[in-house]
């Protein structure tokens, strides 16, 4: 019985140590499309901007797929593409965010569901479509 209680206490303590905290998200990440993004805090929410292109789309440097024709000459480098992420303390997730995807010129709903040692799990959705991706920590 003592072993069981000791194991239970150890598991509980370990889960508290590794519980996600709001600012754990702050950092730099490589997206599957090879863009590097820095996520930072803006007030009590989180935003993100492109910090490196890494030969994105064979050297594309401008927002050529933006549905607003006036913005198609805007540079991708430095562009804020993540807005309004907020930490849900009950779910231990970042929710209600929006992300602009320059490869298709779409704004997606964004949620970050899990922080791992070397990556984060990100869910992007639009209408009934949903995709889960992993972003590598830099």
Please count the beta strands (DSSP E, at least 2 residues each). 8
State the shape. globular
Count of DSSP H/I helices: 1
CATH class: Mainly Beta
Tell me about the largest β-sheet.
Answer: 8 strands, antiparallel, barrel
Describe the overall structure.
The protein has one helix and eight strands. The protein has 138 residues and is mainly beta. The chain has one domain: Beta Barrel (Lipocalin). It is globular. The relative contact order is 0.16. Mean pLDDT is 89; it is low at 4-18.
In short:
This protein has one helix spanning about 1-15, and strands at about 25-30, 35-40, 45-50, 80-90, 95-100, 105-115, 120-125, 130-135. The protein has about 140 residues and is mostly beta strands.
How are the SSEs placed, and which strands pair?
Layout: H1 2-17, E1 27-30, E2 36-42, E3 45-52, E4 80-88, E5 93-101, E6 106-115, E7 119-126, E8 129-137
Antiparallel strand pairs: 1-2, 1-8, 2-3, 3-4, 4-5, 5-6, 6-7, 7-8
List descriptors:
138 residues, mainly beta, Lipocalin, eight-stranded antiparallel barrel, 1 helix, 8 strands, globular
């Amino acid at each position: 019985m003592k072993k069981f209680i000791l194991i239970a206490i150890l598991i509980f303590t370990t889960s508290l140590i590794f519980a996600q905290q709001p600012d754990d998200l702050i950092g730099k990440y490589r997206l599957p499309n090879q863009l590097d993004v820095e996520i930072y805090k803006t007030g009590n929410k989180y935003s993100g901007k492109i910090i490196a292109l890494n030969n994105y789309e064979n050297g594309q440097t401008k927002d050529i797929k933006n549905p607003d024709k006036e913005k198609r000459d805007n540079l991708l480098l430095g562009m804020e593409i993540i807005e309004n992420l907020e930490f849900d303390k009950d779910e231990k997730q970042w929710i209600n965010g929006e992300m602009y995807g320059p490869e298709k010129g779409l704004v997606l709903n964004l949620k970050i569901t899990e922080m791992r040692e070397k990556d984060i799990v990100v869910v992007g959705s639009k209408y009934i479509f949903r995709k889960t991706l992993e972003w590598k920590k830099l």
